[in-house]
């Protein structure tokens, strides 16, 4: 397994505003060892964290990210929509998020959100940022729904760990994974079948599912061979007082005493 059985989704999306530095810190405080974050570009090619291509859902502003530059970052409040306690959170640069994760000892699944950007453009910008600000490639998976983007990134880095993102596993998933020399398959847990999970594992790939917020559902996925789940509620998985399922998950994420 490359990542972990429990991966904080967009940081810890139930506890702090998603894709923020505060969210990364909050995730680490729950005990997770890996987080998932989303990366895209502003109009001046500044790499930032954002799941969306617009500001409406998670900020105090309106408009497209492609209309912004790095000079706008300090004025974009991405925390108040979640709670007023987070009103000091501004739209983070990817570089700062990479440094934050590493300072907390977190592994990272970075999902590329290309939106309108050409595959080559966004791959080159993110590759440049990651090359400068991330040290341990064994603690990083780059994932994307867009195979062209992953191919462009692979051409820039022969050794980076790539993950193929699907909602539903397509018939040619293994050929696509082989062509990209991918290490992992990521899919919607609600659409995954046990037979598919076992085929993926038998083929030698890591398998991660999004976005599972139920420890009981996760336990079933683990029994199929799923390596890890992305969750908004890592606190429910890693809290010893939660329930017996959480205790089972804790045993999966605890270091081997031997």
List its traits.
8-stranded parallel barrel, alpha/beta, globular
* Strand line-up in the sheet with most strands: 1-2-4-5-6-7-8-9
Alpha carbon gyration radius:
18 Å
Relative strand content:
15-25%
Percent helix, as a range, is 25-40%
CATH architecture: Alpha-Beta Barrel
What general outline do the C-alpha atoms trace? globular
Distance between the termini: 18 Å
Largest sheet properties: 8 strands, parallel, barrel
Number of helices: 9
> What's the CATH H-level superfamily name?
Phosphatidylinositol (PI) phosphodiesterase
Global structural class: alpha/beta
How many beta-strand segments? 9
Question: Which stretches of 5+ consecutive residues score pLDDT under 50?
Answer: 242-248, 253-258
CATH topology: TIM Barrel
Query: Overall mean pLDDT score?
Result: 93
Number of domains: 1
Give a quick summary of the entry.
The protein has 258 residues and is α/β, with parallel strands linked by helices.
Description:
With 258 residues, the chain is of the alpha/beta class. The protein has a single domain, classed as TIM Barrel (Alpha-Beta Barrel). Helices cover 33% and strands 17% of the residues. The chain contains nine helices and nine strands. The chain has an eight-stranded parallel beta barrel, surrounded by seven helices. Helix 2 (94-103) packs parallel to helix 3 (119-133) and helix 3 crosses helix 4 (147-156).
What layout of secondary structure does this protein have?
Elements: E1 6-9, H1 21-30, E2 34-41, E3 47-49, H2 94-103, E4 107-112, H3 119-133, E5 140-144, H4 147-156, E6 161-165, H5 173-180, E7 184-188, H6 194-202, E8 206-210, H7 215-223, E9 228-231, H8 234-238, H9 244-253
Parallel strand pairs: 1-2, 1-9, 2-4, 4-5, 5-6, 6-7, 7-8, 8-9
Antiparallel strand pairs: 2-3
């Amino acid at each position: 397994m490359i990542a972990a059985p429990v991966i904080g989704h967009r940081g810890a999306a139930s506890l702090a505003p998603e894709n923020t530095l505060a969210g990364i810190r909050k995730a680490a405080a729950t005990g997770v060892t890996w987080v998932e974050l989303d990366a895209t570009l502003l109009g001046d090619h500044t790499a930032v964290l954002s799941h969306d291509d617009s500001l409406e859902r998670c900020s105090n502003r309106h408009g497209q990210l492609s209309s912004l530059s790095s000079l706008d970052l300090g004025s974009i409040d991405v925390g108040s929509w979640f709670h007023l306690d987070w009103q000091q959170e501004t739209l983070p640069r990817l570089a700062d998020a990479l440094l934050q994760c590493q300072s907390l000892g977190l592994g990272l699944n970075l999902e590329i959100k290309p939106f309108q950007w050409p595959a080559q453009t966004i791959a080159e910008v993110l590759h440049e940022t990651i090359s400068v600000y991330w040290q341990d490639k064994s603690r990083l998976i780059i994932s994307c729904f867009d195979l062209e983007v992953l191919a462009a990134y692979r051409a820039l880095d022969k050794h980076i760990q790539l993950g193929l993102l699907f909602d539903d596993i397509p018939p040619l998933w293994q050929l696509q994974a082989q062509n990209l020399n991918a290490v992992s398959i990521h899919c919607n847990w609600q659409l995954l079948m046990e037979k598919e999970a076992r085929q993926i594992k038998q083929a030698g790939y890591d398998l991660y599912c999004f976005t599972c917020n139920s420890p009981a559902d996760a336990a079933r996925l683990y029994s199929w061979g799923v390596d890890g789940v992305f969750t908004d509620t890592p606190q429910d998985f890693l809290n010893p007082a939660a329930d017996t399922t959480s205790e089972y998950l804790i045993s999966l994420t605890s270091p081997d005493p031997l």
